[in-house]
Amino acid sequence: MTKTVRDTASAAEESFNKHYSAIWGEERWASLYRALACPTRHAALVNRYTQHIYFHQALARDFGPKSPLGVDGAEPTNDLQQLEFPTVQGGDESGIVCFARSNPAISDDEPPTSEQPTKPDFPQPRPATARSTQPLSHWNLDAASVLVARLLDARPGDSVLDLCAAPGGKSIALAQTLWPELYANRPSAPRSQSSRLVCNEADGQRQKRLAENLKAYLPSELFTRGSVVATKVDATQSGSALNGLLAGGAYDKVLVDAPCSSERHIIHASLQAKQSGKTAPEMANWRAGSSKRLATTQVELLMTALKAVKVGGQVMYATCSIEPTENDGVIEKMLALVEKGKKKGAMWTVELGFGGDETLTSQLEQWAERTKRGWIVLPDHPSDGRWGPLFFARMKKVSLQ
User: Fold this and answer.
1) In the beta sheet, which residues pair with residue 140?
2) CATH of the domain spanning 3-43+142-399, picked from 3.30.70.560, 3.40.50.150, 3.40.50.720, 3.40.50.10700
3) Rounded to an integer, what distance in angstroms lies between the CA atom of residue 54 and that of residue 52?
């Protein structure tokens, strides 16, 4: 590494820290940076469309004959817990099953490091046997992603759009509550033929991976009858492809997990590069103004989602950024555009939040903190969950008539 490159990288990192220290305050940024620098914590979303025994077997392969879940008479260990998500009024609490390991506390005496633990939180999902055609047993992801899917509250009979779906974790989470009659363990009736999940990704390679992941986790009959579809449409570009995706406001629920600055990834890349005496391009190329350019795309995606959803339907906007420009700022720009649309004759508006559900709000505070227009899950939250970061804001499209 030349001195010029090293100096440029050092200046970018200093600018990065000054920028977020100014946003969060010096004391909070010190806490938040340390938490962001820690290895990402993963939960295991159990796939309801395959036998639970396959998840148990995957754990047994990883942890030996004594199953952490107490399967087949084994004593359960104390380091595994089933996560409890906030209860959406009228929703099915049992649809999403997600486990996490006990979480070691972050020590203020230890220097920040992104080194991954020697043993992952959960084993990588793989087929039960080499010739198995069963869906995969679980998906490893940040529990904040499952939280957002849970709060969108997809129900049997809903038509759901995941607008920026790759690689598919949130889509798989949304799917868990759409077809309970197809659960491998304790299926419930009646059949939900009308449920539909459209998973979109604009990038060709990522869309291909998305389609493969969906087929690896969901029952084949859902694809045969067109209940699950993977599309490749740029949701920021008007045209026939986008018109086909929107289908005249056909969706009950829309998730917009928008591309964002992903500061945790930048921090991890920087720390890992330093360990080998290198500089990470993610940090060296970081600029404060990048968020403004991203926010333009994010607003376009959110407005597309509002066009796609039915009047009375719900949209969930989410990012893994800690930058207010990409979070509350996008929501405020959306609100301004909706107001402008009303003046031009639009017959709908939006309502933010969860409809005054105080019980849900109280439960949410165990996961996240409020922002001006939504909520954000952060890894230094007092609950010590170490989940996130993930900003989210739910909105309902309502008629003006």
Assistant:
1) 44
2) 3.40.50.150
3) 5
Residue 165 annotated in ligand binding: yes
Task: Check the annotation: does 98 bind a ligand.
Answer: no
CB 393 within 8 A of CB 374: yes
**Percent of the chain whose pLDDT exceeds 70:** 86
Is 169 annotated for ligand binding?
yes
Task: With CA atoms as reference, report the closest residue to 218 among 98, 306, 134, 93.
Answer: 134
* Annotated binding residue 170: yes
Q: How far is CA 159 from CA 88, 122, 175, 218, 221, in A?
A: 18, 32, 11, 16, 17
Q: For residue 199, which of 228, 242, 234, 241 has the smallest C-alpha distance? A: 228
Q: What is the mean pLDDT of residues 285-291?
A: 92
- Is 341 labelled as part of a ligand binding site? no
Q: What pLDDT is attached to residue 117?
A: 55
Residue 110's pLDDT band (boundaries 50, 70, 90)? Answer: low
Q: Quick check: 332 pLDDT over 70?
A: yes
pLDDT interval class at 73 (50, 70, 90): very low
* Annotated active-site residue in 38, 98, 199, 320: 320
Considering the chain, what is the average pLDDT of its residues?
89
C-alpha 29 chain-centroid distance = 23
DSSP codes, 95-164: S-EEEEE--PPPPTTSPP--PPPSS-SSPPP--SSTT--SPPSEEEE-HHHHHHHHHHT--TT-EEEETT
Is 115 marked as a binding-site residue?
A: no
Question: How far apart are alpha carbons 380 and 264 in whole angstroms?
Answer: 13
Contact 175, 197 (CB under 8 A): yes
Mark whether 320 is an active-site residue. Answer: yes
